[in-house]
Amino acid sequence: MTATTVSDPTAPASPSIIINGGAAYASSSTLSLSLSATDAVGVTGYSLLSLSLSATDAVGVTGYSLDTNPVTPTNLIGNWVSVTPAASFSQTVSYNIGGSNGTQTLYVWFRDAAGNISSMASDSIFNDTVPPTTSASPNGGTFTSAQTVTLTCVDNTGGSGGPSGCDKIYYTTDGSAPTTASTVYSTAIPISATTTLKFFSKDIAGAQETTQTLTFTITSGGSGVTVTTLAGSPTVSGYVDATGTAARFCGISGLGVDSSGNIYAADDCYAKIRKITPSGVVTTYTGAASGISAFNVGGIIDGPLASATYTSIKDVTVDSTGNFYMTHQWWNGLLGQNADSIRKISSTGTVSTLAGANSGAAQAYADGTGSAARFSNPQGIVTDSSGNIFVADAGNGRIRKATPAGVATTFAGSGTGGGMSDGIGTAASFGSLRKIAIDSSDNLYVTQSGGVANAIRKITPAGAVTTLAGSGTSADVNGTGTGASFMLPDGIAVDSSGNVYVADMTAHKIKKITPAGVVTTLAGTGTSGNTDGTGATATFSSPGDIAIDSSGILYAQSGNAIRKITIAAQTALMGGSVQGAALTLTTSSQVSTLAGSAGLAGSTDGTGTAARFIYPNDITTDGTNLFVADQTSQTIRKIVIATGAVTTLAGSAGLTGSTDGTGTAARFKNPTGVTTDETNLFVADFLNSTIRKIVIATGAVTTLAGSAGLTGSTDGTGTAARFTFPWGISTDGTNLFVADTSNHTIRKIVIATGTVTTLAGSAGLTGSTDGTGTAARFNFPWGITTDGTNLFVADSGNNTIRKVVIATGAVTTLAGASGSIGSTDGTGSAARFSAPKGVTTDGTSLFISDGNNHTIRRMQ
């Protein structure tokens, strides 16, 4: 036999280690290592700490050694791991470095069958297993006004080498658990209603903190809402006609108001309607006749007001001609008889049964005329502009309609109890119906309760039923739409602006709901009581029905009293202007110079005429200060209204750029439009094609959307979005609206996220077409403002004023005619403009700066 000897003088070559696929950071103590090497004879082992290994060898790599110490091992000393001999070795292994944080370096050597040891290979990674922490300011709580919440992330690895750093904060405001698919925090979060905010942060290494939950309870009321007792004693029942608190009521079940501001209360215990004047004088409207025994159904008498009788009156309403309508009940289960009906008291004082049973019939559901109709437990009642009567027919789970002639039909509701299904007419379902109200457009609003059906429903004149507010769950939670909850909503009323007011009975509060479904507490602390005071300090005892007069004063039943709720004239910031009562300017109003000196350009800060500006463009206010886009000066200036003192809030005079920074460190490039939400300013940075944000308190400037110097029309979030020379900007407090002038579009930006979408118009396509969304066309839209529901645009190239419905993007032309230039005053398309540029509103009128006509125009 001949022996064969393999000579192997060469050590394993190309030793390699890669930690976690070459990642810069790790958030776990267990690392994944890729090891590799080659050897002409064979790699037989390796020595390592934590890595991926590979090698090749003709005879075989036989081992490796891993370590955190860079000292080369020997064949006898080292953490050698034997492997199956292989000429080309490649393997992934794991290595645990324990709880160590900071930079970790691992070293590897390979050896072959001849004992040759390779050169050293190494790789490093920054290990960070300590998650970051996030703090919020303010840190939750109860507030009397809207809040802006700032989230701050801090990351500390606890090891050497320095922190890996915060990456992103994820949050939700609907109570759901946030994930990495949730909204990424980029700017302060506006909270205008009671909200559950949940959030967590991650660092660059991927370490994630535990989700935090904060509750922000937003209450309203305060000095702007005053609650007094108009008539009756909350805790003492009885039947006494008198003035103010000397009067007595028993079981008030419904309220109505006439055109003169008189209140009418359904005094259920005595089956009477009581009249209360605005000064609190109480009389009995239905005359001296007494209510009758519930067993004496035959005694329900129609006829003259003085002799007519009633059993149980649940609600009352008065139409525009002075006719009264009431929901009337009587049900005797032993006799199987009822008198559930709609009773009418004419303006001349005659009582009749308009629809439903007067006596003797079984409680039932039937459409029909007059006495052929049937109701079951009718509750709330209202009349529309045509004199039709609408009733919340609680026992039948339907909204019933009766014409002035007494023809009763089913307007909405399937009759399936306990439901919250939206739909058209009988496709919708209701919970236990209670009261009903109507607005100036004949939309109905209904309170419903019971089980999981506590909500406020809206019904259009076409019978379309939607849920305005309320999750169905019984709880006292302010919020928006179905994000709000009510305990037991009962009375309901609507003001001339479309705000809905609800008596939340078991929450002991009066709630306000905006047309957008935002629910806040108008008055009441949540504790049962009868204390008069401001909205934030007044208490109610199970408030039932509620009514509103033509001047906006609310009246609510609380115990055995009528409470009066006066809402002071409020000012509101909208679109960067303070709106409240209509302005009373006349031709004799004085014009004066607040700041700057005519004909003297500059950038000097100072008071009054000592200050200087260079072609100031747009202007906005928070009610205390003015903020000016000083366009050619490249700055944003602040003017204290009371003193005329001018300072530079952000930017540096004469220096252009796009730098984010604080105060004079920031740079702009021809800022044009400016608006505010009272906490921040938002600037259309024209030649940068970006939208900038300035924190008023600090002057800190950031770029909210767009990328400096990059034009386009891309929808997206933050710097991914593109604009082309945007000029005008406005806000409703939640969103920004931008006249993206050279794109010929109107853009929308969600302030909380920086998400940009195109609301109306099509990028690069000019025209004057009215339409919805991208079907509409603009021609260099310039100025823009909002009333909270609509946008108003100075469409400069078309010489027109356009209206955009925010909810739908529907565009119409309000005034002017495309292609026709002039200065004619007139209505609608008869009016003429010449390159209108700016537009604003005081809540009553629209004001337009008509550029080439050198005039300011008013539209009302």
Commentary on this structure:
This protein is mostly beta strands. The N terminus is likely disordered.
Question: What structural class do helix, strand and pairing data support?
Answer: mainly beta
Roughly how much helix do the residues carry, as a percent range? under 10%
- Computed CA radius of gyration, to the nearest angstrom: 37 Å
**Largest sheet properties:** 7 strands, mixed
Low-pLDDT segments: 1-5, 46-57, 289-298
Number of helices: 0
Question: Strand fraction band?
Answer: over 45%
- What is the tally of beta strands? 71
The first-to-last residue Cα distance is 116 Å
Shape: globular
Kindly report the average pLDDT value: 84
Quick summary:
The protein is mostly beta strands and 860 residues long.
Key attributes of the depicted protein:
single chain, 860 residues, mainly beta, five-stranded mixed β-sheet, 46% strand
SSE blueprint:
Elements: E1 13-19, E2 25-26, E3 30-47, E4 52-67, E5 81-96, E6 102-112, E7 121-127, E8 133-137, E9 141-143, E10 147-154, E11 166-172, E12 183-184, E13 189-191, E14 195-203, E15 212-218, E16 225-232, E17 252-257, E18 263-267, E19 272-276, E20 282-284, E21 303-304, E22 312-318, E23 324-329, E24 331-332, E25 337-338, E26 341-345, E27 350-356, E28 368-369, E29 378-383, E30 389-393, E31 398-402, E32 407-412, E33 423-424, E34 432-438, E35 444-449, E36 454-459, E37 464-472, E38 479-480, E39 489-494, E40 500-504, E41 509-513, E42 518-523, E43 533-534, E44 546-548, E45 554-558, E46 561-567, E47 572-574, E48 577-579, E49 606-607, E50 616-621, E51 625-630, E52 635-640, E53 645-650, E54 661-662, E55 671-676, E56 680-685, E57 690-695, E58 700-705, E59 716-717, E60 728-731, E61 735-740, E62 745-750, E63 755-760, E64 771-772, E65 781-786, E66 790-795, E67 800-805, E68 810-815, E69 836-841, E70 846-850, E71 855-859
Parallel strand pairs: 2-7, 3-4, 9-15
Antiparallel strand pairs: 1-3, 1-4, 3-5, 4-5, 4-6, 6-7, 8-10, 10-13, 11-12, 11-14, 14-15, 16-43, 16-46, 17-18, 18-19, 19-20, 21-27, 22-23, 23-26, 24-25, 26-27, 28-32, 29-30, 30-31, 31-32, 33-37, 34-35, 35-36, 36-37, 38-42, 39-40, 40-41, 41-42, 44-45, 45-46, 47-48, 49-53, 50-51, 51-52, 52-53, ...
